[in-house]
Structures are given as C-alpha cells and as structure tokens.
Amino acid sequence: MKKHNFSAGPCILPQEVFLKASEAIMDFNGSGLSIIEISHRSKDFVAVMENARSLALELLGLEDQGYQALFLQGGASMEFLMVAYNLLETKAGYLNTGTWSDKAIKEARLFGEIVEVGSSKDENYNYIPKGYSVPNGLDYLHLTSNNTIFGTQFKKFPKTDTPLVCDMSSDIFSRQLNFSEFDLIYAGAQKNMGPAGTTLVVVKEDILGKVSRKIPSMLDYSVHISKDSMYNTPPVFAVYVSMLTLEWLKNLGGISAIEEINDKKAKLLYSEIDLNPVFEGFANKEDRSNMNATFNLTDDKLKDEFDALLKEAGINGLNGHRSVGGYRASMYNALSLESVGTLVDVMSEMERKG
Ligand SMILES: *Cc1c(COP(=O)(O)O)cnc(C)c1O
After folding, report:
1. Which of 15, 53, 175, 295 is least surrounded by CB atoms within 10 angstroms?
2. Where do the structural domains in the chain lie, given as residue ranges?
3. The CATH number of domain 15-252 is 3.10.450.50
4. Separation of 278 CA from ligand 1 center, angstroms?
5. Which residue's C-alpha comes closest to atom 5 of ligand 1?
6. Closest to 310 in 3D by CA, of 4, 1, 2
7. Helical spans, DSSP H, in the chain
C-alpha cells in the first residue's frame, strides 16, 4: 500500500511523475532507449533541458527579465560556496535562521567578511528575526526562505537595494512571491521538485562578473550559462524528473493554484496542533512554515502509542530532525490534503484516548 509520505527530503513527488519517469527508464519517447542511456547531447535530451529551464522561469514569472535558470550538481550545499565564489568581493550579509543558513555562512566566510544581520540562534531558531537593519556596502544579502528543520518561514522579505540571494530549497514553487525581488535563487531539487542530484539556480545575469578572483569553470555561473547548463554531463534523470514535476505544476494551474492547496493543508494541521492538548507547536505562530510543521507531544510518555498509530495509518517520515526532536510533518506540493487529513485523524484519536 502506498504510504502517506511526510518525509522532509528526499520527499513525495506526484504519482503521475513517478509513472512517467518509470516509463522513460524503459523507453524514452519511443526511442527504444532508456532516458538514462541516451546521450545528453541527443536532440531529445537537449529539448528536456531547455524545457526544464524555461518552465522554471515561466512558473516563477521571470521570463524575459534577464534571468537564467541552471540545473547544476552538488546540492544546495554546493551553492553555499558558489554564491560566495561568484558574488562576494568584500562583505556580505546573512540572516541566520537555522542549520542551513549557518552552513551557508561558514562557507561564505572562506571568501570574505560576513555580517550576521540577524539571527534566531538564541531560541533554537524557532522564529524569524525582525526589526534588523541591512547595513550599506554589502555585496549581497543571503536569506533562507523556509527553514526545513525548524519549521519557520519568511512571510515578508526585507526591502533593500542590496542584491538578495535566497536559498529556497524547501519552499520553491509552493507559494506566489514577487520572485523578481531576488537576484539569485537556489534550491536542491529533492524538496519540492525532483529526485536528489540536481539543484536549480535562477540568477539575474547582470549581477555576475563583478568579483576580481578567478573562478574555476565548474563553479562559475557564467560558464554554465554560456553552455546552456550543459558544460559537462548534466544529471540527466534528475533533470528529466524535475521537468515532469514542473509540467505537472503548470497543468495544475501553476504556483497560485498549488498555494491554495498548500494553505488548506497547513491550516488543517496547525489548527489541530493548536486545539489538541496532546500536542504543542515548536515554531513561533506568526513565522510557521506552510511546508514543514514542527510539533511535540506535551507528554513524552505517549510517544510509543502515537508512533504505533502513525504506523498503522501508513504515515511515513514524521520524525523531527535530531536537532529539534519531536515531530515534523513536511507538506510539500505533491502531498495531498487527504494525507494531512489522515494525520489529523490520528492526532485527534490520541486526544480521544487521552
Ligand atoms: C535540504 C536543504 C539544504 C541542503 O541541501 P543539499 O541538496 O542536501 O545540499 C539546504 N538548504 C535548505 C533550506 C534545505 O532544506
């Protein structure tokens, strides 16, 4: 039986995408060849890459505005250093909102001075810093739009002339934003777009070429742009599956359509967390993520009972990250409202039994 998959990443993708991907493994486009054995220079794969790149820009509303979409390797973690390599000349600002921002800061420090413009480390990252001011003279300001581990999410972004760089790994394509406020967006595919193995980078071309250091080709965004994201062999299968997911999203009505469903899912789960005395939320209410909901049992002795009910209901992947403990329900785009309903039923059963 198919599980209700609340895993934080790699994570659930649309069933239809799994089906199409499995067909292409056996026979891609009726070519008599598998998607994973064709040449990445073949006409059919070049079309996949072009389609994936243009769908990404189209869904984000960034076509014809000087942006390029790239499908790179190395995960979001590689972007922690590539961003600094390509953009950091002297000084950059970072908002420290969790484990991933912290790691991004650590990498960037290898390339220049880093100002921590705001941080929520003092409260184990259960909120999004506010009221900070962005100093002048920064090469860029880096944010993490959704903090996958702690379950917090930026609802408002700073208004500033400083170029904005954003790690959107765990909420890209999940809600409508004015994406043109960002100069560079990156996201590992495995949270909301595809299998692990590729990272989407959307970059405004005019912010590149301003640092004085020499950049190795594989780490140079301009090189990847000049080669249409095919400087070397791209992760063919991961790009193909990402393309299928983006097509699925487009057919569904795009980001605003999925956002409506994501809002419903989050409301359903958070109202249960708030009303059910057996559970308590981890993140600050106003900063709660619509993608990753973190919560705890108010009485740890109920853990075995709750875990057994989850298992019985076919719910997978609900354990919290080791740095937070408790539970985390990841409700990415492909997770249905029905799956959230199943989880909420189990939670209310815990209350009835209590
Ligand atoms: C998962 C995650 C990462 C790390 O991604 P990798 O692809 O494993 O390097 C970085 N940032 C955020 C916000 C994430 O959720």
Report:
1. 15
2. 15-252, 254-353
3. no
4. 31
5. 76
6. 4
7. 15-26, 43-60, 75-87, 99-108, 221-226, 236-252, 254-275, 303-312, 337-353
Q: What radius of gyration, in Å, describes the C-alpha atoms of the chain?
A: 21
CA dihedral of residues 247, 71, 178, 333 (deg, nearest 10): 50
**Which of the listed residues 7, 72, 77, 172 should we mutate to test ligand 1's pocket, taking the one with most ligand atoms within 8 A of CB?**
77
Query: Which residue's CA is minimally distant from atom 2 of ligand 1?
Result: 169
- How far apart are alpha carbons 168 and 188 in whole angstroms? 8
Active site residues: 100, 167, 191
Residue nearest atom 3 of ligand 1, based on CA coordinates: 76
Cα-to-centroid distance, 345 and ligand 1 (Å): 31
Percentages helix, strand, coil for the chain (3-state, rounded to 5) are 40, 15, 40
Hey, which of 101, 105, 149, 170 would you mutate to test ligand 1's pocket, going by the most ligand atoms within 8 Å of its Cβ?
A: 170
The ligand 1 atom at the shortest distance from the C-alpha of residue 148 is 15
pLDDT in tens, the chain (354 residues): 899 999 999 999 999 999 999 999 999 999 999 999 999 999 999 999 999 999 999 999 999 999 999 999 999 999 999 999 999 999 999 999 999 999 999 999 999 999 999 999 999 999 999 999 999 999 999 999 999 999 999 999 999 999 999 999 999 999 999 999 999 999 999 999 999 999 999 999 999 999 999 999 999 999 999 999 999 999 999 999 999 999 999 999 999 999 999 999 999 999 999 999 999 999 999 999 999 999 999 999 999 999 999 999 999 999 999 989 999 999 999 999 999 999 999 999 999 987
pTM over 0.90: yes
Ligand 1 centroid distance, CA of 76 (Å): 5
Q: Return the CATH number of the domain spanning residue range 254-353.
A: 3.90.1150.10
Give residue 186 CA to ligand 1 midpoint distance, Å: 10
